[in-house]
Structure formats: structure tokens, C-alpha cells
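EI: anyone free to look at a 501-residue chain?
SC: sure, send it
EI:
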Amino acid sequence: MRSKISFTQNGKLTEISDFKPTDTLLDYLRLKAEKKGTKEGCNEGDCGACTVMLGEVKNGELVYRPANSCITLLGMVDGQEVITIDDLAEPDGTLHPLQQSFTDFHASQCGFCTPGFIMALLPLYQNAEGNINRQQVTDQLAGNLCRCTGYRPIVQAALTAFEEGVPDKFNNRRETTAGLLASITRDDGASVFIGDETAFFAAPASIDELAELYTKHSDATLVAGATDVGLWITKGLMELPKIIWLGKVQGFDTISDTSDALEIGGGVTYAKAEESLAAIDPDVGEIIRRIGSKQVRASGTIGGNIANGSPIGDTPPLLIALNAQLTLQQGLETRTIPLEDFFIDYGKQDRKEGEFVRSIKIPKLQTAEHLPTYKVSKRFDQDISALLFALRVTVNNENVITDARLAMGGMAATPKRAPHAEAALIGAQLTADNAIEASVIALAKDFAPISDMRATSAYRIKTAQNLLRKAMIELAADICDLEKMDTRIIPRHVAPVEIAK
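SC: here you go
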């Protein structure tokens, strides 16, 4: 058991044994470390002004990722390298290649957002393999906002820096950094406990230790990536005296991939799961790509998205449509339930005192199964869903639907299936308009959504019905003889740019 956290800053070891459980990395950097280049903007992980780069050794290799320091708790950087905008330039004033390119292309005006843009790009600069294209750059910057410069010079500055590919000091000292981190690695088998029985920051090193600690302190707040809990602290101003961080639990972030299913540990991040989930269906990969930003996906976890029970979480409808099973653990006891049964009512889940999400088992699509999935939000990137649509259907050789599971988020107090629409779909001929319209009409019986800032009730119902039509039309184009279909119909997985050619 360790009573301090350790991390490196600019090649130097930092150790801290006295901090509040809710202290953020941003506050530490600005108020204690005097690194004022890292800015506080939205203070909720949306604008990217506070972005820093974190490095850690995984499977013997040093890897970097971007992080929103405003919602990253200080204790969560244990065993990592923390790099800020203040660390980039050389002592003689020579700028980092990214900084120099931003200067050359006039990619900054007021400059407030600039540190965050550069720090968001820096992990890509370290981990890049081969040529970096415009899409990769814009994906990397999806969590960064600029209100005065405009994005053209920012993107051009980034592309030019990547094209030139000048090695920087972080690449040049990777082995040295990896060796230093290895000496304080989070996987050293030692748990962290800072505080006392009434207030603490804890990071158990094993699942058994997590279970024991959470059984003893079931009033503690479990934190995985803090992409939600961070806002409880910075926006809700909540006092959370006991925090148990899950990022150190060995084996909690593993993915088991078999021929018929994925089993994802409760601590697996969106970023780590993205490739495996996209292999189930390209639509799933696209949904994951649109969850938050690179910063959010590198920290946030699928288990956390489920455990907080939000009715607008993006992954639960997907996983319910796939008939995912949830394994929960309390002490040494585990139980497995269908994921759809976990959500009871708004803010209420089937989770006992001291029980946590251990893993999620996700069946893969079998032959003749399809999964059209759509996210509707006011903006494409970094936005919460107005609704999430996920439909798994089985279609036989006669183009008849033999099974259907339709789940939606944003349409009820919990992620919810649509039993009336499912019943109307089963037995329907895929190309028969009247049969499909029957399921569209039935869908209105399944939901009574509320109106809020994201969408009205009427909009949600109408959009859900239109998405069901869209899914059926696109499936017909994919499965059936295209010569018998309207030539304007675009198959689901054909990119628009390819059609334009």
C-alpha cells in the first residue's frame, strides 16, 4: 500500500502525499506547479483549452494520449508522465515543431485556445505511423474549440508539421522516460490509499482489493475516466469525500475476443474498445468515433457509461440491441444479467450496495444478422445524443425478417427496447412497404419521450420513425437485388465520397 502518488514532469519525478480526493490536475498545474499555459475554459471537458499529454508504459511500450486536465483528478496521473504546453519549447527558446508551424501559418489570434490545440495534436505527433491526413487531424481536434482564428490555418499548420515530421525531444528521450516511468509504474502491484477512513483517494491494484474496499466503503464514488464525475465536481460543486479510482486495477481493462463474443472489462476505455467494437459492424465504430472527443474517449470507459445509467448514453442502446450481458460483482460474489434489465428507472439501476460493473459480454453478429445504428445530435462531433437508434435484425434467404431487437436512447427515462415495433418487424418482407410502415406506426406506441433542450417529444418520435424507415431502405439496398431497388438508395457502408466519384 502506497500513501503517495508519483508522476514525472519534464523528466523530473514528482511525489505528492497530501491532496483532496477531488483536486483536479488543472488546479494543481496552475495553482501549485505554476504552469499557467494550460488554460481553464469550459471546465467540463468540452473546449479543449486545458488539454495536456499523458504518457504511460503499456505492455513495455511508452504510449501517449491527450487528456482534459480540468476533469482529470490529480490522483489519476499516478505512474504517468504529465506534459503541458510549458514543457514544449527548448530552454534556449526554440519552439516545438507544432508551435513553430502554428506561428508560421498564423494559426493563433487571441491565443487562449492555442495551447490546447497544440497539446491535442502532440500525442498524434508522438504515436503517428505513416502519413497523417486531414481526417486524422480533424478527428484529433474534435474536442478543441477556437472562437476567433478559424480552423483552416490550424489544420494547415498541423498538416505541415506532420508532413515535415521533425523528431521532437519527447520522441528522442522515449527510452529514458519509459525507464523512469517503469520505476513508478501503476502496475507495480501496490494499491494507493491517501487520506483516512472518512475522506480518501484510493486506487486498488486488484479486483479483489477493489471489491473489498467498495464493500467496506459503499458510500464511496467509483471513478473510471471521470468524464462524468469530473463535472459533478467542477459544475455541480459536489463534495465527494471518498473516491475509488479504477484505473490501477490489474485485469480490469482487458478485452477477450472469441469467435462469437467480446468480453470487455469494466475499465476498458472507448479508445481501447473502438477497434474491437467496429469489427462487429462499421456503424458501431462510427458511433464510438462520435462519442466525445479523443480526450474523452481516451479516458471514458464503456463500463462507466453503463454504470451511471444515463438515458442518453450512447453505448447502452447499442449493447442492448446486441443482447449484451452484464457481470456485476459484490465482494467475492458475481452475477450476470441481461444489460437491458440493469436499467430500472431514471437514475435507478439494478446495482446492490457495494456492487460494481465487472465486465460486459457482447455477442457478435451471426450470419444473416445486421445492425443499422444511428446517432442524432445537434452537431456532429463532441455532442450528446438527442436520440440513439440501434436495430439488430435477422433476415432469411427470402428477405423476411425473422428476429428483431430495437433499442433507443433519449426516448425514455432509460435506454429502452421497442417491443411493439419489434413485433411488427418480425415476419415482414424487407422490400414490402406496407409491412415496414406497420412497424413505423407501432413504434409510436413504444415511447413517450420528453421535450428538452436537445429535442422536442414530437421531433424525437418523428425522427425515430424516419430512422426505422432509413434502416429498412438501406438494408434492402444491401441485401436485395439492387436492380429492383431505387438507384438513389445508398448502401449503408458505402462512403458518400465514393458514390460521388
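EI: Residues 407 and 416 are 5 Å apart (CA to CA).
SC: 👍
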